[in-house]
Amino acid sequence: MFLQHCEKVTPLKHDPETGFLVKFPTPAKRDIIKIVLQTLLDPDGPEDILSSNFAIRWVLECFGQAFTLPLAEHELIRSTIELYRKWINQEQLTQTFKENHYNYLQSLFGHMSLLFQIRKENNKKDLEIQKDLCLKIIEIVSQFAKNYGSEIGEEIWNFLLNLYLGVVDHFLGQKQIENDEIFGKMLAPHLLKLLFELWLSSKTKDISMWNRLLFLFTSWKKYQETVLQWTATTYGLSNCVIQMLYGPSEGTDDITILLPPTDEVKFEPSTFILDNETLVFFFYKTLHLIGNPNTLRNPRIFFLAMNGIRDLVTLFTRIGSNIPQIKKTTTTKKSRKNYPDHPNGNTILNLFGQWLFESVELNREGFEEGTECAYSTLSEIFMLPQKTRFKKIYTTSFYESIITAFENEEKYGRSIAAILFYTSNIFTSELDGVYILIPFYLHWISEILIKQHLPKNCAIRPELLRRSCLSILNTLICLPKYFTELEFEKEFTSSSILKNFRYKTFNGMQQLIINLIIQGFVSEEDPTNACKFFWTFSIYLFEMKDTKLTFAPKLYNCLIEVISDHEEIKKQKWPIWVIECALSVLKSCSVLTEILMKKNPNIIPNMVKQLLSRIHQMILDPNNVPMDIHNESIVCKIFEVIGDHIILGKWALENNALMDQLIELIELSISDPQFVKKKKNKQITGQTKKIKNSALQLFSRILCQAGTLPIETKINNISSLVNEKELMDYFNISQLELKKRLRYLSLNNNKLILLFEEPNNDGNSNDNDNKEMEDLLSVENRDEKKTLLLIRDSNGKYCWRLRFRSLPIGFIKREVNKENLHYWEGDPRPPIYKAFTPFSETEENEENIKFNRDQINFDFFTNNEQLQYDCLNHSMGFEHRLEEVYRFTEEETKTIEIKVTPPKNKFACNDHQNLESQKKEKEGMELEIEKEEGGERGTGKGKKEPEHSNKSYFNSARFFLTAMGLIKLENEENVEYLDENTNLIENLKQFDQSYSRNTHTFSVIYMKKGQNRVKNIDNIYKNQTSSKDFQKFVTELGWLINLEKHKGFKGRLDHNKSGKFVPYFADKSNEIIYHVSTMLKFEQNNIEQKKLLLSQNYITIAWIEDSRRWNPKTIRSNHNSVFIIIRPHYSGLYKIEIENFSKTTNVEGPLENNSFLSRHILAELVRLTAVSLDNSGFFLENNNNNPKSIRKQKLNQLVNQFKLNLNVKDFYSKTFSNVWEK
């Protein structure tokens, strides 16, 4: 006995010798079943009731009728089901039953199928009861198939498959009354799931069974449960086939079938394992069960079928994207198999292309949702990341389908939105002839971005569709300059879009692109899209930087308007993070400051003025509302942006009005609460600590960088590289003498000053290792006293070489008529304009020289140059220079007062001889003094010098301190000495490692074609050669430095281990070292050392000479968080992909994923993006502490640790003597 419908659709036939109790009255059948059931379940009952086959058949005949009883007897039915479960699982069986168990299985399963008969008199409650009982039977059959499937024969499997083919068709294959349909929907997903589980467990290859399934399946396709089950089964089979074809890193080991959950139940996954031959057979047969989905007449079912096909296509297109990190494992035969990398796009289209192209061509009315799905699936296939040389018929059909849709909005409106959304990177693909579509895309981008006209029946959210349009526009930015006068193909002469497209060449698109960017932003309301527009601004600026940039003011105005729009938190148009993004864009564009100033001198000053006004508004709050953390962040960011622009060039320093406004604003920003001021009826309250620090940092940058570095200097030497150890080695002085000649002072606790009075020797000038130091310290006159001034602060370390120079007053340039200026060719000193201006009406004394204007014969004077020189010297009262007197003073010889008398003659042409005799007289007096003390001049054999002499090695340096006013009493609290001991010097050595600029190390790896495959990963690090294109890119990232001689930031490299030369870049804010995989020269090309070094960097730049997909996880370590991937495009352009694995770092531009760049801006934008990402990650991990703040903090710690806290007496003793001890 079994369900009667099964006999209609399957070969199953009823046994005429069974079913003799069918005609019994229901009460009689119920009583018989109860009595037999109680007897069998009674533990004290007889044990040999089922000892014969006749008894077993008779009992089964009785229990079979239990499944036909009314549902009011559901408890009796449930007890019978439980007894059948035990017998099926071979529990409580007699010996005879065990021996013939498989012979009775057909009866057991057939009897239970009777419960699936639809009861027409059922009410809602009975339907629920019957459903629960049926689900119990489904569970029993499913468990049996899993546990005993491999033990039963083909006969039983065919019986089960035919039985449940009939059961499923009973619900889905015939027209049902209302209750039947309800009941069928309740059980359909469970029965379909059971049927496909039985099919997979049976592993049947019986063609007749598959043909019967295909025949019945055709009538089941009208239900969505059928299509969902087909999708789930085909998906599981495809996953397993993919692993078989493409290796263990793809797909799954087993077939996993998981149905989507319903409102009532969440299905558990089912897993199966098939051999490869059976797997492929099942995949092919199951895939084609659905037939041609375009024949489906229900729009909802059609959409589900197309959506299932899209899921299958996605499985194939994502092959190669889910590669796990490589672990060292024992190589097996399976792992050595040479698997293909990915499926060819033509292969996927061979499987699904006919259905998809037919769907978009038919575009049946009412079936728009399914047609949209077909378009999105085709787009996914053609947008494959790996290069596929598609068959011409496929490419042509795809282009025609897109053009057809774009031309007919009324019919294809929903599909137009799908095309724009799913083909955002179509112009970075390597499709043949893809640029023919540019006019059609630009038409709809213009409609959406400028006119805000969405396609009819658009099912994609407007902000997402606009975002996709902007992504497409980003890929077109570089084309006008690259293809210039290349004309567009116009093969589609009947196209209305092409007729209205007035641009004949690529170069003509420039104005259209800038209009789309600016006008599109004006109409934008989505914050995320606004940020995307901002970065589009920056990319376009860089791309067009060598043009006139007439559009630049409009772009800057858009950014400034966003920043200025933030009047109050409650009334703002854009959220805070959008304003911060606008400021980030301005910051990234600061490198173009000098270019922009040449093209438009007003654009940057106007921008800075507007930013200053914005800060002014936020600080001068009319309501005296305390500044919140969001406004505080904006103010600090604006200060940073202003600083980045001001330090580039001299334009700001030459703009007095701008500088006045800036300094005034800085003063307001650092105002303390106790100095509350009023200005225009607005309160200026004390600012937050963060704002004060930002304002002071800006002021420091202006003074230190823009103020002291307009001089020409290498940017990597922006901070002095001299240190104490090199000074000691160069001058070859002992530790004791160093202590005498050296002083450390702290100025206002924020500057640490080293004063070092150099000895007269030339140092180790013959030592080749000190050649650079020799060049640095070389002077014209080595007899002059020189003081080395080394200043450390938060901005860096600066070294000054001080030489005291003083010229006679007559040699000072004066404002006189040109005819009074004369150049003395015989003067050995540096050329100086000299003017002779006679004195008049001076007081008469012995120290002044009296001239009378009337007594001077100017004609005679003008014609006698030697006479002019002598008179100028004599007019000052002495011939020798002041520095000579200073030298005598330093040698601490006893001075003799020299009185100069007025000349006897008018011009006293021989007075220099008189002065020379006075010098000799002075030397004679000194000689007499030495003889009186018992010594001989020049022999050193005089009276012994006292043990505590007042002789000092610090005279020249002390003179500088005095001239600067640093040793005055009023500066007592601001200037403090530090203890010059070894610990301080060692601490300073460590402190010098705290760089004043942001430091970055970026990994740069090169992959040849084919090296992006898993098995070739080690070959990446073995590369010693690379393409010329990559080499040029590396040279544009920075410049080569010699690590052995470079004393700045080295990025953890040692020239003895990693190689001598390395790419380096520096500007006034950053220092960058690039760890280039092809340039690292470890001993014996040590791959592990190279891997370790490259894996420790936060940012990795990967140059891949292969269009196939590469997963960065293959080489990623815990430190590698962001990968910037560069792929050379066949057109000569470059495609950029960004993989971000960081949970905290946002991709902040200028570049974004799927950017498309030309050669001349590639390296610059990659560098800016890497720096932006690295700064973002560093600041988030270090609580926004920038290098200057860290350096300032360490400097304060050093000062507090080593300052001497001297009283006045000790302070001056240390200043004037070298024997002071603490």
Automatic annotation (TrEMBL):
Where are the stretches annotated Disordered? Answer: 907-950
Task: Provide ranges: composition bias, Basic and acidic residues.
Answer: 913-925, 932-950
Domain Rap-GAP span(s) in chain numbering: 988-1198
Matching PROSITE patterns = RAPGAP
Q: Which Pfam families match?
A: RALGAPB_N, Rap_GAP
Keywords for the protein's UniProt record, in alphabetical order: GTPase activation
Q: What is this protein called?
A: Rap-GAP domain-containing protein
What lineage is on file? Eukaryota, Metamonada, Anaeramoebidae, Anaeramoeba
